[in-house]
Amino acid sequence: MLSERRLEVLRAIVQDYVGTEEPVGSKALTERHSLGVSPATVRNDMAALEDEGYIAQPHTSAGRIPTDKGYRLFVDKLAGVKPMTAPERRAIQNFLDGAVDLDDVVGRTVRLLAQLTRQVAVVQYPSLTRSTVRHVELLSLAPARVMLVLITDTGRVEQRMVDCPAPFGEASLADLRARLNSRVAGRRFTDVPQLVQDLPDAFEAEDRGIVSTVLSTLLETLVEETEERLMIGGTANLTRFGHDFPLVIRPVLEALEEQVVLLKLLGGAEDSGMTVRIGHENAHEGLNSTSVVSVGYGSGGEAVAKLGVVGPTRMDYPGTMGAVRAVARYVGQILAES
User: Fold this and answer.
1) I need a surface site. Which of 198, 237, 302, 304 has the fewest CB within 10 A?
2) Distance of CA 268 to the CA centre of its chain
3) What is the dihedral sign for C-alpha 338, 231, 242, 280?
4) What residues are paired with 293 via a beta bridge?
5) pLDDT for the residue 176
6) What are all long-range contacts of 50-53, with beta carbons under 8 Å and residues at least 24 apart?
7) For residue 270, with 0-12 CB atoms within 10 Å meaning exposed, 13-18 middle and 19 or more buried, which class applies?
8) Could you tell me if 291 and 277 are in contact, meaning their C-beta atoms sit under 8 angstroms apart?
9) 104 by DSSP, 3-state: which?
10) Separation CA 138–CA 170 (nearest Å)
11) What averages of pLDDT result for each successive group of 10 residues across the chain (338 residues)?
12) How many CA atoms lie within 13 A of 302 on its CB side?
């Protein structure tokens, strides 16, 4: 366990390095911070922190910089989440309130997060498996062709064309629509297969094949991998941090292009609390020089997806965590009211 004084020295090193982008020396620390001890004592504390792997000395400097381990301790024990100011909160609300549909909500959220944090923003679309059905619409496009429209409680809309094995009349289609919604509206997507499995039996023999075809399309929609959609924005922000990436920025950009990598970075929606992954804690090698701050968002206190930011390990963790949490809260409110 580090002493309180050494924790304060580490906090000061992280804050100065994030703020100045320069390795931090003992003289600068004693001048900028009220540590209450001499530069010689601070040098001893810094030597101890270095021995324990919390800070390191770049080859070109007498100063020290935090390591992944040092940032981890800072985030876990020393950094509070910086709250947004009242004007910032109003700006977030005003910007997101103008959204007209789910795509617009996600797009605005990505732009907002990238602007607030000056990092790369990643927002996952609400997961179908964690959503509930608001309504199923069936529209006749031709005698044997139906459009199935699935609307979720989060405002997500999925459309599928259904080619029926035979013509299906308007009256029968209206009957199917009514019976289907009476069973699935307001229910979790995971419950739908069981709720509709005997529905064909409620129809005349000549219509059962058509009903089964429509239902199979509905069930396919529920399990399709397209639910793992996400949007990314602010990649150009990384160019401001060229010196933060020890080799080149290209591996980071390549990793950000892989959707599977990003989804793993954000983590599962079931882990809805604030998550901070620092440097080598990110399994993908191309992202070992980055940190990821993510949190779940949703309505009714239950996360349906994740959002977050990716940036260099030398980031303003309290400010970034505050912005990510605030934006997630507002997005959740919008979904609850949609």
Assistant:
1) 198
2) 9
3) positive
4) 276, 309
5) 92
6) 52/2
7) exposed
8) yes
9) helix
10) 10
11) 85 90 86 84 90 87 88 87 87 85 89 92 82 89 91 83 89 92 90 91 88 91 67 82 64 75 70 84 82 85 84 91 92 81
12) 11
- Decide: residue 218, CB within 10 A, 0-12 exposed, 13-18 middle, 19+ buried: buried
Question: b/e per residue, 244-262, with b = 16+ CB within 10 A?
Answer: bbeeebebbeebbeeeebb
Query: Residue 82 has what DSSP assignment?
Result: P
User: Phi, psi at residue 269, to the nearest 5°?
Assistant: -60, -25
CA distances from 189 to 128, 152, 226 (A): 7, 9, 15
- Report the DSSP beta bridge partners of residue 136: 150
Q: What is the pLDDT of residue 242?
A: 62
User: So what's the pLDDT on residue 184?
Assistant: 92
For residue 226, what pLDDT is reported? Answer: 47
Token pair belonging to 74: 């800072």
- To 5 degrees, how large is the angle CA 37–CA 41–CA 44? 150
Which run of H or E residues covers position 223? helix 205-223
CA distance 25 to 31: 10
Closest CA to 53 of 71, 27, 39, 37: 71
Structure token digits, residue 232: 């990314």
Contact 269, 125 (CB under 8 A): no
Extract the tokens encoding 205. 């023999």
193 half-sphere exposure, CB direction, 13 A CA radius: 8
Q: What span, in angstroms and rounded, lies between the C-alpha atoms of 333 and 300? A: 9
Please enumerate in sequence order all residues whose Cβ is within 8 A of that of 154, keeping only pairs 6 or more positions apart, or say none: 102, 126, 131, 298, 299, 304, 335, 338
Residue 150 phi, psi (nearest 5): -110, 120
